[in-house]
Amino acid sequence: MWHGLSGRVAVTGRMPVPRIQSETMSTRIFTASNQITLLRLLFVPVFAILILDRNYRGALVVLTAAAVSDILDGLLARWLKQESALGVALDPIADKILMTTGYITLSLRGALPWWLTVIVLSRDVIILTTAAVISLVAGYRPFHPSLVGKASTAAQIATLFAGVCHRARVPYISMELVTFFLYVTAALTVASGVHYVFLIRQRFGIPEADSAKTP
Questions:
Q1: Domain map (residue ranges) of the chain
Q2: Cα distance between the two ends of the chain
Q3: pLDDT per residue over 185-197, tens digit each?
Q4: What's the angle, vertex CA 55, arms to CA 90 and CA 40, rounded to 5?
Q5: Do the Cβ atoms of 179 and 136 come closer than 8 Å?
């Protein structure tokens, strides 16, 4: 197959791609860490089905496995030096899909309130829409997660676990503890959204003082 491909490329007058480069690129795509991330995506429908079937203990097992896989794929990528563009893009996508699925299904079952789910999802939609518009207008601009953003994500994950653990009747996970996580998550999510908007205005907006000086 590769010999045939090299022959066709040579006919067009282009430099043939060495076989070793193609194999290296394939290895970077199908690394161990990327395969674990893809496995985490497969956890999503299983988790959703278990929640909708009210099998909260099974859902807790799947959610824990997903969390462990999230830690494991990052460690493997660093230890084996297998960081790739696909892994950098795929990892947060897998996390966000699982998080979104978790909040929606738990809200459907009454384990989490809809108002919190709306806050969490609305923040994500606003951030993604804003980032897409900026990329279209001004080109790609990376935004590194801030301390508030990281705290918001951690709180959202903790609330997701708390909601599942409470329904699975895990000891010491009371409704009062779940309620505490609800309000902490809501506050941090709103704060991170406001902070993100402030960063966008700071980076791309025109300061008012400069605008006043402009004739």
A1: 28-109, 110-205
A2: 66
A3: 999 999 998 888 7
A4: 15
A5: no
Which two tokens mark 13? 């007058």
Q: Are residues 100 and 106 in contact, defined by beta-carbon separation less than 8 angstroms?
A: no
Q: Which two tokens stand for residue 121?
A: 């999802």
23 burial via Cβ count (<10 Å: 0-12, 13-18, 19+): exposed
pLDDT digits (tens, 9 = 90+) for 94-135: 889 999 999 999 999 999 999 999 999 999 888 778 777 776
CA dist 18 and 32 (Å) reads 24
Query: How far is the C-alpha of 141 from the C-alpha of 20, rounded, in Å?
Result: 33
For residue range 79-101, list pLDDT tens digits in order.
877 777 676 778 888 889 999 99
| pTM exceeds cut of 0.70 | yes
